[in-house]
Amino acid sequence: MSRSAFAAAALSAVVLLTSFPAHAEPPTAAASGAPAVTQSPIRLDLRTALELAKSRSRARRTGDARASEIESHRAAAGVYPSSNPMLEVAAGPRATTDGVQSAVVEVGISQTFELGPRVSARSRELDALVRKAEAERDAAILDLSGEVAHAFVRALWARDRLASGRAIEELAKQAFEAADRSARAGESKRLERSLARTAWARARLDADLFEAEQTEVLGRLTVLVDLSPSSVVVVGRLEDPLPSPGVRSADLPQVRAYEAEADAARARTALADALDYPDITVGVRYGNEDRGVHTVVGTFGITLPFFENGSGSRAIAKAEEATATLEAGLARSASDAHATAAESASKARTRAISAFEAEATFDLGESLQLVTRSFEAGEIDLAELLVFRKELLETENARIDRQLDARDGEIDALLAKGMLR
């Protein structure tokens, strides 16, 4: 085989890389000749993945259940009076100084009432605890959304890396075939054939490893969205920025949870203050003696809050309020700083990648033409072509990796601002 024919075969392999679809989706059953299936795969984009994860997440179910559990205490907290009436019965003999005895029977009923705003304080504490449970649920869902988003863009990354790997494998295969034909015709050294075969085997190994990694990444994503890996096809382009999530949340769920805990502590403080108010007991008592003497008297009692006046509960509640308020302030400051830093880093990555792609795109095309002309002219041999293949693969993979970094940075920025929905 002539050297020009070998050059033409290698050139066609190089051109194949540039025309290979970097974002190709798996072939359909009709295109591959496989029997048609009744259920088509789910085309999973980022928004759909987030909605599925949130609707099926354990965090949502357990968070809603916890809020309902706390809400169920409201009926008990709103009962007033908080104690039941007391019915008393007394019976016994009565003796006078002259030795006359008579039987006495008394029946009384009384009710104790709490003074002070205890019912409203309990209600405010329950309101705060429900808000805390909801905020903790939202925080867990936000963390899950971050996991899903990172897993999704990594699935896109794995798909593109696999496409690049398969293109390089095809390039190495055609280079080996050209070297093999040339060696059989006695136009090239057998060492070149061995080198080309080894390069093809390595390219095939790399592509197979990329495919294994894609399977692993897709499996992790489908676990998060509760789907089968075989029923999902990720759609989208790694180069595309994330969809606009809308306005920024006023506060992160973690901050709202701390604020709700502070409100609950304030309600407990108000409940402790209400213990300064005494309890009163009112009732009526009826008495009867066997000699036909009947008595009816009213009763009234009041507690004297000298010892238990809520001082201990008040001190604990105020300490809890101070701690929760401090944690809420620190969390808000940290979230603002994190959001600013994450957004700045994301923008810097995007600018760097845009500059890289603007330069690397032209360099890639010029390099293809230069290497092709050099190989046709006999200025480079197969070994130099393989070196170029290695550089091309590393450049393409670097581009894909940097795109993944950019999308991960965007996700971190949205998480820091509570905007990933």
Helical coverage, percent range: 55-70%
What's the overall geometry? Answer: rod-shaped
Strands in their spatial order, largest beta sheet: 2-3-5-6
Question: Could you report the average pLDDT, rounded to the nearest whole number?
Answer: 78
pLDDT < 50 stretches: 1-38
Give the name of the CATH superfamily: Outer membrane efflux proteins (OEP)
Main sheet attributes: strand count, strand direction, barrel closure: 4 strands, antiparallel
Beta strand count: 6
Cα Rg: 39 Å
β-strand amount: 5-15%
How many individual helices?
10
- One letter per element, helices H and strands E, the order comes to HHEHHHEEHHEHEEHH
- CATH topology name: Outer membrane efflux proteins (OEP)
Distance between the termini: 61 Å
Please tell me the total number of domains.
1
Give the name of the CATH architecture: Up-down Bundle
What class would the helix/strand composition place it in?
alpha+beta
Question: Could you please describe the fold and organization of this structure?
Answer:
This protein is of the alpha+beta class. The protein has one domain (3-25, 39-416): Outer membrane efflux proteins (OEP) (Up-down Bundle), CATH 1.20.1600.10. The protein is built from ten helices and six strands, in the order H-H-E-H-H-H-E-E-H-H-E-H-E-E-H-H. The protein has helices at 3-19, 29-32, 46-56, 58-71, 74-77, 118-184, 190-225, 253-274, 311-376, 382-416, and strands at residues 42-44, 86-95, 101-114, 232-234, 279-289, 294-302. The strands form two sheets. It has a four-stranded antiparallel sheet, with no helix packed on it. A two-stranded parallel ribbon has the order 1-4. The longest helix has 67 residues, at 118-184. It starts with a helix and ends in a 5-residue tail after the last helix. 31% of the residues are buried.
